[in-house]
Amino acid sequence: MTPIVSQIIEQARLAARALAEFGGHLLHPTVRLGVTGLSRAGKTVFITALVHGLTRGGRFPVFDALASGRIAGARLSPQPDDAVPRFDYERYVRAIVNEREWPESTRQISELRVVIDYQSLSGAMRTLTVDIVDYPGEWLLDLPLLDKSYEQWSAEALAHSRDAARRTLAAPFHAHLESFDPLAPADENAAIESARLFTAYLQACRDERHTLGLVPPGRFLMPGDLAGSPALTFAPLDLPSGQEPPAHSTWAMMRRRYDAYRDVVVRPFFHEHFARLDRQIVLVDVLGALDAGPEALRDLQAALIGILGCFRIGRSGWLGALFKPSADKILFAATKADELHHTAHDRLEAILKRMTAHAIARAGDAGAEIDVIALAAVRATREAFVHDQGGGLPSIVGLAAPGERASGRQFDGKTEVAVFPGDLPSDVASLLAGDAEANRKPTRVRVRNDGFHSIRFRPPALEQTADGIPALPHIRLDRALQFLIGDRLR
Amino acid sequence: MTEQLRKPAIFSVDDPRLVVAEPEDTQRAAVGAMAIPETPFERMLGTPALPVRRMRWGALFWSALSGLILLGLGVAVTSFVEELFARTPWLGAVGLVLAVLAGSALLVLIVREAIGLARLATVGSLRGRAAAIIESDDRNRGRALLADMLSLTRQIPQLARARTQLEGHRADIIDGRDLVRLAERELMAPLDAQARRLVVSASKRVSVVTAISPRATVDVVFVLINALSLIRGLAMLYGARPGTLGVLKLFRQVVSHLAVTGGVAVTDSVLQQVIGHGLAARLSARLGEGMVNGLLTARLGLLAIDLVRPLPFYDQPRPALSDLAGTLLRSSENEAEPDPAGRPKPPGGR
Question: Residues in chain A with pLDDT < 70?
């Protein structure tokens, strides 16, 4: 009963906000660009490169408005939300260009507004405002929780932790769970201990590169300013089915905290930043998952399906646009495409297409426009060809990032190497199918060791000219821009 | 998995086997790229296909006849020169030299015409390839097309800057469809504007001359000559540079397209033509005729653009009769005519 009421209230609030903003948007057209991606997908780099390209007039031949000279200029402008930190664009640009380091992982939500002055095709001077939000990718994992009760989530989380691959990581948590009676009166210290062990298990999952740790709740991994609050002090329990929790029991307490987490932490995050998107780009680190093996790939796919199911997608009439805004263009991008030779990009796109087939079909039904590309917001490599025995190998050359290993060598971040990362499989279906047999055998290790192995590179060296920083090289960033906001700049 | 996947490998940068610029062919073989079936471009172009001729008896007849005439001419000249020799040797020598000169000039003419026709065929095949690339988004073929477009437009001076820019983008990783779009925007868009101007001025000329000409035969001859020069001008503009035969061939194609599409095109702009014609006709029957002829020339020009443009209209707006008709009506009637349809005006349209 209550969830329905609260949902209706939420919808009404959203509609009211959309209506209130509608008037403002008539005067100042605004695009809310949703940059969606799990952690390490490259959200921060994407936003930085995008803003840099727009404000500095990057090399974007496919982005019509810029290439044909209709964009007079783009500038950063004060963001609309006063309570949200500003996206630290200058620091990230410095990191990439001067120190040649990738920005460290995002811990905080932040926001940026770019105003583009352009001349429309009919000759009128206009402005377009683009609002972009950056946030820790871990938080995105929480979105599927919006529709789940504590009991549902608890059962799923426990089943997940008892998977063959994760069981060893979750052993301490399981041990604690054994000694824990959900029907007994609530004990704060036991709850804290349980939450601590559960968080440790989630951390272990994430640090283990094999599985990429795609397990909610995401704030446990990246708490922001909520660390230690009761909303973050809960854990799944072994619950008897078909029962109501007795008052003052551990179960009741955990359930209350889970509900608090969902309503106080997750729902505002979603509604503030994702419920009213105009355009969406979904960044997916397919190569990282491929490196980690088929299991990680399937995990990633499952997480994507869960997350993308939460978004409002589709074309709506003007009345719909007024009361129920939804993203009408969605771009799926396999990031870090510069770790492959361009001849392999088609296969990379095919893999991503297959992984997001579910979301693509749904978006297509809803009338949204979809595209799938291989993208590198900042291109760190150049291409080469190695004439090896048995035909040539299309390779890439770049400065390997410190700590990367390949064929028994560890790089110090100062050596340039040519890398052929291996062929991507063209048979995507069998790669992703829940092959029970393949699951039991330790295929993960085999694939990881000799099938495909990509290497991270440091950002490219740029020559600094007198009039500022030259544009960052990229792969298909212009195509992404053209797709996402090109039609709004006509 | 049955396919053979190559293993990862690492090389140092000073490895002698490393080549930074890779040859296109090896690269293509290396991908094991999927073969994309060629889609017949006529279907995607939006221009209706010419009626297919089954038996080329007509062509055979004309070829045989012209061969015969050429043969007869050759024999006649030979005997004439022999006659000259018989009369006076120096006159014969002069005759021989003249005959040789004429013969070699004819040869050059024939070669030039053949090259012109071949260039026209190239333009057609470029268009077909571009349409196929738009469908398949094939990167390698897009690059090849871009290179061919650059060499085709090398003779067009106003594209120098655009060509330089495109040369700069050739090494970038851009997909096939985007390459076509890029080539269209950079190379075709400036020409499109000029082509519109050509068509508009030709049809203006025709409508004015028709309105003031004393005799119907003068109209017909003028319309014909004007149409031929318009087609030639458009072909030159887009870099096709056809010879006389090429222009005639184009003219025949345009006219047969006009016969096929005439009905279709009438329906899409019939209203505005009726209004235009009605208004003009009310002023004067002459003026009305002029309008009709002018519109005919405009449509002919638009069809010719479709045939001589090396890329199909993909991202750039295709000039439509309604764009041009507005200009036409205004200019020939000298009175305020409401903008036909709410179409955005092309930048160079007026």
Answer: 1-3, 18, 20-27, 208-215, 313-325, 389-391, 407, 430-450, 463-469
Chain A residues in contact with B1 by the CB 8 A cut-off are: 425, 427, 430
Give the residues of chain B that fall short of pLDDT 50: 1-2, 22-50, 263-265, 267-268, 271, 332-350
Instruction: Convert the pLDDT of each residue in A221-268 to its tens digit.
Output: 777 777 777 777 787 887 777 777 777 788 888 888 888 888 888 888
Burial of B37 (0-12, 13-18, 19+ CB in 10 A): exposed
Return the structure tokens found at B109.
């003419």
Both tokens of residue B147?
A: 């290179």
Contact yes or no for B261/B48 (Cβ under 8 A): yes
What are B167's strand-pairing partners? none
B12: its two tokens = 């140092």
Selected for mutation to probe chain A from B2, B3, B4, B5 (highest A CB count within 10 Å) is B5
Type of residue found at A357: A
Establish whether the linkage from the previous residue to A217 is cis, with ω within 30° of 0: yes
Chain A residues with CB under 8 Å of B13 CB are 397, 416-418
Classify residue B77 as exposed, middle or buried by CB count within 10 Å of its CB (0-12, 13-18, 19+).
Answer: middle
Quote the strand ranges of A45-200, DSSP E. Answer: 71-77, 110-119, 125-134
Whether the CB-CB separation of A97 and A49 falls below 8 Å is answered with: no
For helices B89-136 and B176-183, the axis angle rounded to 10 degrees is 130
d(CA B131, CA B180): 9
The number of CA neighbours under 13 Å toward the Cβ of A411 is 23
Locate the chain B residue with the closest alpha carbon to A406: B10
Report CB contact under 8 Å: A387, B9: no
Specify the length of chain B in residues: 350
Tokens 């050509």 -> residue: B198
Answer yes or no: do A382 and B169 touch at CB < 8 A.
no
- In sequence order, the 6+-apart residues with CB closer than 8 A to the CB of B287 are B211, B280, B281, B332, B333
Gap between the Cα atoms of B109 and B113, Å rounded = 6
Here the tokens at position B177 are: 């469809």
Structure tokens at B56: 């080329």
Whole-prediction pTM value?
0.78
3-state secondary structure of B81: helix
Q: What are phi and psi of A288, to 5 degrees?
A: -60, -40
Using DSSP's 3-state secondary structure scheme, residue A213 falls into: coil
Residues 6+ apart with CB under 8 A from A76: A51, A55, A89, A112, A113, A114, A115
Would you say the ipTM is above 0.85? no
Question: In this predicted structure, what is the pLDDT of residue B4?
Answer: 65
Cα–Cα distance between A266 and A261 in angstroms, integer? Answer: 7
| Span B249-303, pLDDT tens digits | 888 888 888 777 654 445 445 545 555 555 555 566 677 777 778 888 888 888 8
Contacts of B15 in chain A (CB under 8 A): 386, 418
Side by side, the strands of the sheet bearing A125-134 are: A71-77, A110-119, A125-134, A30-37, A279-284, A329-334, A369-374
